[in-house]
């Protein structure tokens, strides 16, 4: 087996047993990036030298019988995490030359556990999108293709570069961030696993903000267990983030092995609304059967405000974004376009620095907060958010986890769904409710559509009960036996 | 509620994003498309429902009053598009 | 008599409210660990949080919260056990994030009251609407370059308390008294140094005018006035401008204005066109601020004695008149100095010395009570020398001047200059005898009924005794000899 095909868990074992070195493992991935990134555009920055040095450090530590939980593991980092001394762009022209003099807490923890960073992955600009089409560095190509058709498909978004890099074996695993589905939807589109943990589980310090009340970092990997291992290293209280949760980090990897016999799995009626395609409905049905076979009890639940979740999200997230992105003004860092006066400088800088989707969301967000509209839009959305949270709280009185599809369709072609922003927004219809409620939710690859594209199932858990989410996801993964491979991948 | 061109210009100015006059109709149409879709929320009765700002349930953590940061003007200014000595520089602001 | 300004159409009343921005005394900033000290090299007291770098997050400083609570308690105000931080969104060169973290709908402190005393002794209660915590902005320097402004973020993120009064003030004098009283209270509490020169206290002044009995008319806000005197001048200038507008048939527009001290006028401010649309919303980076009632009570228990209470105590305990007590408590340091002098001595006597001779000496030498050349202990010793008859009151003044000059202890000065009061009747008798002998004509006049010459004889005797005679004994002896 090639080094790029290993799971993170297996690679860890191989490194400890000295079957191969961290240097070899890293070189194999750097070679894969060199070979495939020109096609995939998954990385915007590759840090060859830093990766090599980190691998050598890991080898020395491993030789001493030391090394952290991720010693020598090559990872891809979404280019939304600030990395000290390494350009961090948020895939925006406005930050195209920004080199942070500081490190995000999540990446600092990963470094401290010995991980090797291969580089920074592409994303929708400022994580705003579901297709990776909005990146200032060009679209990412999904390594999967429709049955023999080489037409480029989107990897999903916004963590599309991370998803594509893991699916195509350019990295063992990757970090992502999820605001309304940005880990789960691209994971589903690329046939990998990805979990958005509970809001507050991972520190947001040093992650470029999109919508602060929703943003969460999480792992993306080829197995549920790999996600669990990686999350263990990313999670934990951080005094630098006032919204980070001060609670212990459980052994997520151990939780994958837990039985689910007697567990009650909720199936929300409202997710079966008209419009769900036959193949998605069939996949969901198979998922229920697998869990039943594993001993779980399936219960119908109702999440009555599901329909309102997406429009609510498209008020809350742009409102926060309009404020979070005000700091990109051409004064202290980032791109500047000169102007005759300060207002002209601001307006020219932001007009040139932001792409259309970012502008769209800033303008919507500015509008819904502006005088006379706040109550009708923003305040109302916050109230509906309460109703959505209550829906889940009520549902969790009768179930322990919730099973839904991850996305309404498989990956679509680049350029599709671009005519109307709302059509694109509908991609997140299944992922957004859990985001608004701050709940942990994972996407697991569970099957292929008739054209051979991967589809994912989503498992949503109670706040801070990622363990149950992992246990259920692990059973789906085992039952699905997902073994299909993307057309574009290292060694193929 | 639907945006007229003047409102699009006002919002763009509030957000400090320059929009060419030619582009106003396109933005107007796109924003109205999104707002029209959001409009469905108006039908929901939210009387008596408290607003939710965030989902974290704990109280605001407080730090001690200790100087732990600063003293690094070079790092603060390292990314500045324009500087003079240790200042950021912008076109003259008239109050 | 209420204050009015006479226009062409008759007298106008003023309605004034103040928003005071008081810089919180703390080591570190409100949401970052950067230092707050005044006068650092540009951008040297700046964290990535203060400069609003991507991904940076605020974490609140407990001491800043405590200072706001102490201030609220000192203003007899409601403390809100739950409050919240909002973002006030606007673009400005020295506002790095494009928003200021402030408290809009749910401030930490609610209604309170402050008592002011006017020159004629009238006492008025001025309502406090609220106090909230917020971040200061950075500083723009406009005079360093012909076409550029320079930005220093050292002050960005320093904690401010915005203290908003009710529109209860009716004259420039009242506004001045309010500001001075507020400053005194803040300084007693140790929550703000009140230094207006360094900008630690700035006032926004809301002014409107009306005819007697009318409801409020439109008000204008005069921003960032930085001395008590300028606040009083700005109010008068703005009120006169508004009166002229109304009287010429115009309408006063609600707007933000700037006071130009050099020209004594206010003018409309540019760059404020978005002022009506700050798009406030709850800051999602910060959870609601919840205070433990026990913590608030502990802060209350630790509050110092405040000026109003101290004044009452000085009146009761030392028998001071209200005016003297008021002068002494205006600054904690002078109140403390007075008490150190007065303890165990005659209170009014001590107060006269502190307010009279000491304050005059400080004035003359350009010193403050903290750097006084005469320590309270030394002044106390001087008063003891008078009280026990070692020196007389007249000589005490000279000794005090010597203390200011030399810093020597009063007893040493008395000894060195041989200033002890002469109580030996023999010496007094002989001085009296020689004065009367040398002024036989005056003695004759006195005896024929010109009794006011008695003072002349006292003066001559004291002069002959180099001022050291015991005044009571000198009087006795003279009277006897002239009888
Ligand atoms: Mg104000
Ligand atoms: Zn303020």
Task: Pick out its properties.
heterotrimer, A: 492 residues, alpha/beta, Amidase signature (AS) enzymes, 16 helices, globular, B: 95 residues, alpha+beta, binds zinc ion
What does this structure look like?
The complex is a heterotrimer of chains A (492), B (95) and C (483). Chain A contains 16 helices and eleven strands. Chain A is an alpha/beta fold. Chain A has a domain at 3-259 and 434-480: Alpha-Beta Complex (Amidase signature (AS) enzymes), CATH 3.90.1300.10. In chain A, strands 1-3-2-4-6-5-10-11-9-7-8 form an eleven-stranded mixed sheet, with helices on both faces. The two termini of chain A are 12 Å apart. Chain B is of the alpha+beta class and 95 residues long. Chain B has a domain at 5-42. Chain B has helices at 5-14, 24-38, 73-77; strands spanning 62-63, 83-84, 87-91. The longest helix of chain B has 15 residues, at 24-38. The mean pLDDT of chain B is 94. In chain C, 39% of the residues lie in helices and 19% in strands. In chain C, the strands form four sheets. In chain C, strands 1, 2, 7, 8, 11, 12, 13, 14 and 15 form a nine-stranded mixed sheet that branches. In chain C, helix 5 packs across helix 6 (322-329). The two termini of chain C are 56 Å apart. Classes of the chains: A alpha/beta (492), B alpha+beta (95), C alpha+beta (483). The A-C interface holds A 81-82, 88, 90, 95, 98, 100-102, 104, 204-209, 211-213, 239-243, 319-320, 322-323, 325-327, 329, 331-333, 342-343, 346, 366, 369-371, 374, 378 and C 48, 51-60, 87, 89, 91, 93, 96-99, 149, 151, 276-277, 279-281, 284-287. The complex binds magnesium ion and zinc ion. Magnesium ion (MG) binds next to loops of chain C. Residues 21, 134, 162 of chain C line the site of zinc ion (ZN).
